[in-house]
Each structure stands twice: as structure tokens, then as C-alpha cells.
């Protein structure tokens, strides 16, 4: 059974959060993280559930590198 609408809304929210946090990283770290985030975004398009799991792992890693991302 495919995931419901709430899953996709949460997934979109977490993708936005990951991009926001990646932008707050220092330049030397930010570029590789953004590239990796783009591959995770592509994975989400092909397989949302597995992509979501990859996104969760990446958010944990980013959170360890930056404490409070800027607000837009």
C-alpha cells in the first residue's frame, strides 16, 4: 500500500528543512552536503520510503554539524 498524503507532506517539510540546514553549513562543507542532498532528493522521487530513510540519516548528520539554521 503506498504512503498517504501525510507522509508526503512530512517528507516535503523534512526536505525543506534539510536544504535550509545545508545552507547554514560553512562553505567547505556545504557544497558536498548539497550535492549529497540532491542525490537523496532524486532517491525520494524514485522510492519515497527508502529516500525518506536516507533523508532521516542525512538530517541527523547535518544536525550534528550546525546547531541552529537561519530562518528565511
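^ C-alpha cells above, recovered residues below v
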Amino acid at each position: 500500500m503506498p504512503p498517504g498524503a501525510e507522509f508526503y507532506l512530512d517528507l516535503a517539510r523534512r526536505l525543506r528543512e534539510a536544504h535550509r540546514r545545508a545552507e547554514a553549513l560553512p562553505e567547505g562543507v556545504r557544497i558536498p552536503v548539497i550535492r549529497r542532498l540532491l542525490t537523496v532528493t532524486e532517491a525520494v522521487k524514485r522510492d519515497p520510503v527508502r529516500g525518506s530513510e536516507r533523508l532521516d540519516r542525512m538530517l541527523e548528520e547535518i544536525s550534528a554539524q550546525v546547531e541552529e539554521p537561519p530562518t528565511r
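The radius of gyration is 12 Å.
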